[in-house]
Amino acid sequence: MTGKIRVIVVDDSVVVRRVISEVLAEDPALEVVGTASNGKLALAKLEQTPADLVTLDLEMPELDGLQTLAAIRKRSPRLPVIMFSSATRRGAEATIDALSRGASEYVTKPEGAGALATTRERIKSDLIPKIKALCTRPITMPIARIRPGTDAAATAVAIGVSTGGPPALHALVAALPVLPVPIFIVQHMPPLFTAMLAQRLAGAGKLPVVEASAGTRIVPGHVYLAPGDHHLVVDRGALRTTQDPPERSCRPSVDVLFRSVAAAYGAGTLGVVMTGMGSDGMRGAEAIREHGGSVLVQDQASSVVWGMPGAVVRAGAASAVLPLDALAGEIARRVKGSA
Prior knowledge:
Layout: E1 5-10, H1 14-25, E2 30-36, H2 39-48, E3 53-57, H3 65-75, E4 81-86, H4 89-100, E5 105-109, H5 115-135, E6 156-161, H6 165-175, E7 183-187, H7 193-202, E8 209-211, E9 223-225, E10 231-235, E11 238-242, H8 254-265, E12 269-273, H9 282-290, E13 294-298, H10 307-314, E14 320-322, H11 324-335
Parallel strand pairs: 1-2, 1-3, 3-4, 4-5, 6-7, 6-12, 7-9, 8-9, 12-13, 13-14
Antiparallel strand pairs: 10-11
Helix pairs in contact: 1-5, 2-3, 4-7, 6-11, 8-9, 9-10
């Protein structure tokens, strides 16, 4: 992409529209080319004004965020859309709905006293990096020789994912057969959102999925999702959650999970790094390889953002790079010991 990233801001609050527009305009790489107070006006604006990305409020009059998203997806299946949602249970449910229906990402609105100042900081620290990650054309890199992993059967699977994760996880869990090993997942999400995601994933396929909690016994064939704002640590037989400092600005952190699984399961560890911005999971993938385990990476073409997977490949820690629709089969194959 050349030139500035063109953004349309959609929100029923005139204050929020103004704040988002002002903060985005301060960044020389971004340009706000239009605003709208509801979905109906947003769709009309999109017909008239070329845009590279839309920020979309969930709760709006006339045409709400989910209805607007559905209409956008019919017209522009690949246009990046970032939902601007409240960090409430209702907001979490609606956000998970939006992500499952094709939203690219989300940012939560601060609530309560001081929300305006916090909103400005949230736009700078969270929204702007996501806009740039979604709209910057990735550099296609050749995949160097991939080192083979262990021939031993995998005895635990650890998955790390971020931007674009919920629909990718849904597709993966839906495709997995019943497996005789535990599966641990870190998805970068706040509290409430991870609980909603676990509920959705539980209905996706054959494997039971729960949001992990401290002291939970590890049962083969079950899937454990790290709770928002807590690291997930795996010990033999049980789970721990901690609020130790974030790593790479992430809590839960993929690196923390991967290191703990590698320490607990050694060469039987199978790591999986999926779509996401940043590089969380790279050091953890290296730890898995150092313990003799293997690491699968989602390929660039099927990833919403190839930050996390690309970092693992560049570090030389990937055992194989696969499209999303091939990951479940490869996980099952390695669990059964045919790697």
